Amino acid sequence: MSSRIARTLIVMPAFNEEESVGAVVREVFEKVPGVSVLVVDDGSTDATTRRAREAGALVATLPFNLGVGGAMRTGFRFALENGYENVIQIDSDGQHDPSSVPALLAELDNADLVLGARFAGEGDYVVRGPRQWAMALLAVTLSRSSATTLTDTTSGYRASGPRAVRLFAEQYPAEYLGDTIEALVIATRSGCTVRQIPVAMRARAGGVPSHDPVKAAAYLGRAVMALMFAFLRPKSSLTSRAD
Amino acid sequence: MSLPSYIAGIVSAVLALIVVAEMLRRRHLRERHAIWWLITGVLGLVVGIFPQLLVSASKILGVEVPTNLAFFVSIAVLFFVCLQHSAELTVLESKTRTLAERTAILELRLRELEKLRTAPEAD
Known about the structure:
The structure holds 2 protein chains of 2 kinds. By secondary structure, chain A is α/β, with parallel strands linked by helices. Chain A is 42% helix and 14% strand. In chain A, strands 3-2-1-4-6-5-7 form a 7-stranded mixed β-sheet, sandwiched between helices. In chain A, strand 1, helix 2 (21-31) and strand 2 (36-41) form a beta-alpha-beta unit. The longest helix of chain A has 20 residues, at 213-232. The two termini of chain A are 25 Å apart. The model of chain A has no long low-confidence stretch (mean pLDDT 84). Chain B is mainly alpha-helical. Chain B is elongated, with a radius of gyration of 26 Å. The termini of chain B are far apart. Chain A binds chain B through residues 40, 58-64, 66, 70, 73-74, 77-78, 81, 174, and chain B through 94, 97, 100-101, 103-105, 107-108, 112.
C-alpha cells in the first residue's frame, strides 16, 4: 500500500483559494503520509500559489484561468511525465476529506476510475429541484454507459488508475461540466471500468451550493447538452497508442 | 435601374475587392480566410455589371423578387464565414490551452531543477 501511495499524485485544482489551500494540503500530508501533492493554480489573482508552496506542495501555475478541466489535464500530464501511476483529484476548498484516499486507491484494484460519491450513505449532502433531477438523469445514463451503479456522477473527488491517467493526459475535456460528465463518458467508451465508493463530504469552506432555481434549471440544460454531445463525439482510442 | 445606382453597385463591388486584395498583399489576411470575401466580391461585381443575370437566376430558381435572391446569397455567405470563424476560434483556444498547460509544467520543472542546483551550495 505504501509503495502505491508513493506512486500516487494528488492533484488539487485551485482558483483563488488562498484561504483554504494551505490547510487542505497540510491535511492531505497528515492523513496520507508519503504522497505527492500537486496544486494546479488555475490563474488565481490571490496568493494561492504561495500558500500552497508554503504548505509543501508542488505548484503548477497556469498563466490564466482554464477551468477545472484544463487544470486537471495539466495534473494528468505532469503525472504521466513524472512516472506517477495514479492520480487523485481533491478540491482545494476543503470539501473532500483526505482520509478517504486509501479507500479510493484500494478500489483502483477493481477499476480504472473510482468516484467518491456523496450520496452513497456517508455524509449529509443534499440537493433539491432541477439540480437534483439533473443529477438523477446523469446518474441513470452514466450508470448504464459504465455498466455499474453510479449515484453521484458530478463528484470531483475521484481516483484514476494508470490506464485512465494515460487517457486523460491525452484528452481531458475543458468545457463546462466536461471535467465530470464528459470525462466519465470518455473513460467508459475507451474501455475503462468505473466504480464508486461512498465518501463523506464536508460543507464547503466558503459559500454554500446554489439553490437559485434559474441557475439550477440552466445547470440541468447544460448537463443534458454536455451528456448528449459527449456520446455523439467520436470514440477515443486508448488501446491503439498506449498499450 | 438608374445610371447612378448602376455605377454605385459596380464601384462598391470593386472597392470591396480592392480592400480584400490589399489586405492579402500586406499579409493582414490569410488566403484561406480571404477566399470567401473574394468569391462574394467577384459575384457582386458580375451581378453589378449584368443585373439581368440576377433576374434570370431568380426566374430559374422560382424567386419572385430578384433582390431577395441577392439577400439570401449574402446572408448565406455571412453565415458560413461566421461559422468558420467560430470554428477557428475553438481551434485557437484549444491550442492556447495546451500552451498554457505546457508553460505551467515547464515552470514547475525549472523551479525544481533550480532548487537542485542551489541545494549543494547551501550545505
